[in-house]
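QUALITY CONTROL LOG
STEP: pairwise intake check
CHECKER ROLE: data steward
CRITERIA: each record must contain a sequence immediately followed by its C-alpha cells, with no blank fields

ENTRY 1 OF 2
RESULT FIELD BELOW
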Amino acid sequence: MKNPICILQMQRMGDLVLTFPLILWLHRLYPGREIWVVGEESFFSAIYHVSPQAVFFPWSAAPRLKTRRFEAVVNLSHRDEAAILAGSLDTETVIGPYLDKNAVRRIRGDFQLYRASLTGCNRHNRFHWAELNALDLVPLSLIAATRPDPPRRLPPEKRTVGLFVGASEAAKRPAPAFFGQLAVECLKRGLRPVLLGGPGEKDLAAEAMRTARERARGPVRILNLAGKLSLKEFIAVGQTMALLVTPDTGPMHLAAWTGLSCLNLSLGNVHPWETGPYQPGHHVLRSSVSCSGCWSCERESHLCHAAASPRRVALLADHLTAAPSARTARLRTPGARLLRTGKSPLGLYALSPATRETGRAVFARDLSGEFWQAYFGARLGLWDEAPALAAATRLREDAPHLAEVLGRAMPRFARNLGQGLRGTMPDDFWRAQIPFLRPLASWLHMALANDDFSAKARRKALSDAEACLSFLLHR
C-alpha cells in the first residue's frame, strides 16, 4: 500500500476550501495515493462532500497519525501545535513550518518560506494562497493547465441575489445598515435579495432588515436566512442564486468552489490577490486608495469602505446577473476598482480590470506587483529571468517617478543589508525600507533567520539582492 500524503490545515473554513485545489493536483500527480487532511471538524464535516477525494481527520485524532509513514507532510497552518505535529511524523518530506530535532521552529519549502515573509508586508504580493499552498510540490505546468469551469449562469429571469452580511472581523465587512440599503436598491432594480450569514450574524441581519424597512417606509420583500442554514443547505440554496455579494469570507470561497458567481467586496485588511475568489470569472470590488489591501489598518477610519456604496453595488449586481458585457466594461467606478478573476499569461491567478480605469498610482502599484511576482518566480525556479527583466523595464519606462524613488532608496538598502550580513541584522530591517523594497527585505531576513545566518544563507541572500538590483537598475 502506498504511503499517504498528509496535509495539516487547521485554520478557518476559507483556508480549508483553498486547500481543495492542492488536493486535486496531488491526485493528478500521485494517482492512487490517499490524501489525508487534518482540520477543524466543525468545518470539514459539513463540506467534505464537495471536496476532492480525501480522508479527513479532526485534530483530536493527531496521535493516530504517528503510527503511519507518509510520503509527504504539508503543514499549511501557522499554529504551534501543527508545527510540533509536522516535525514528529514519519515522512520522506516536510513542507511548511515544523519543529526540528532541537525543538527549533523551521520552515521548509521555498514558497512556504516566501509566504511567511509576507507577514506585515504583503502589499505587492501577487501569488494567491491556493497556489502558494501547492507550489512547493506541484509543477507550474499543472497549475497553468488547470481550467476550472466558470461560474454558472442562470436564465435571465432568475434574479435572486445573496447578500452575505458577516466576516471574521468587523473591518472586513460593511456595516449592517449598508446591507439594508443595498437590499432596497436591489429591489428597485428587480433583483430578489436574500440575507445570508451564520448563527453569529443573526443580529447583523436583523439590523439590516430594520434599515431596509425604514428606507422603504414599510414592509419589504427581503428573505432573511441568516443563521437558518447549515453549510450543506447554504451550498444547496446557492444553486438557485444568480450572484452572491459577499465580503472576503469562508462562505465566499465555498460559494466560488461550488460554482456560484461572486461579487467580492474586498474591504479592510484583506488582499484579493491572496484571498479573492480563486476560480476564473468572479468579480472583486476594492477601493483604489493607496492603503487598500493592508495587513492591518492604521487609520482612524476604514477609508476603503467608501468604495462600496449600496447604489454602486446594486448597479454592479444588476449588470453581473445579466451577464457581464461591453456595457459593464463602460461603467465608471470612481475611487474603486472592479476586477475580474482569471489566469495570467504565466498561468497563475490574476485580477484584471473589468471596467475602464486610469490613474498613475493604480498603474504603478500594478507594475510593482507584476515585477515582484516575476522576480520571486525567477528566484524560486518557476521561470527564467525574462519575465523579471521585462517587468523591470515596464516599471522604469511607465512609472519613472517610482524609478526615481528607487534610485534614491537603493544605497540605503544596500548599506543596511551589508551591515546585517556582516553582523547582526536588526529586527526592523525590512520595515526600515521603503514599501516597494519591503518584500525583498522581509524575504531575505526570513531566509537568513531560517538558516541561522549561516555562511551559505548569507551568500545566497547577497546573490538574491544583487539579482534584484540588477533587474531594477538594468545592469
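ENTRY 2 OF 2
RESULT FIELD BELOW
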Amino acid sequence: MDFGHNYEEEVEVLEEVEIVDNKSLVVYNDDVNTFDHVINTLVKVCQHTVEQAEQCAWIIHYKGKCIVKTGSFKELKPKQEAICEKGIDARVH
C-alpha cells in the first residue's frame, strides 16, 4: 500500500539588511566666496567633477543652498568640516 504523500517544506531565509541613516551635506550661499572658490572646494572635498561642482555653485547662488553630497553622518562630517575650514558655510542635516 503506497500512501504517496508528498511534503513540501517552506523555509524562510532571513537576510541581513543594513539600515543606513542617510544625511545630506548642504552648502549655503554667502556674499563672500567666489564661484571658483566654491567649485574648487567641492571638487577637492566632495570629489565632484568640475561640471557637478559648477551646477552646485549655480544652485547655491540662485536658491541659497544645495545638497552637495548624501551619505552617513560619519562619512559627511569630515567633508563638512573641510568645507567650513575653507570659509564656506556647510551643515549636515
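INTAKE CHECK: passed for both entries
DESCRIPTIVE NOTE, ENTRY 2: Residues 23-92 form a domain with the Ribosomal Protein L30; Chain: A, fold (CATH 3.30.1390.10).
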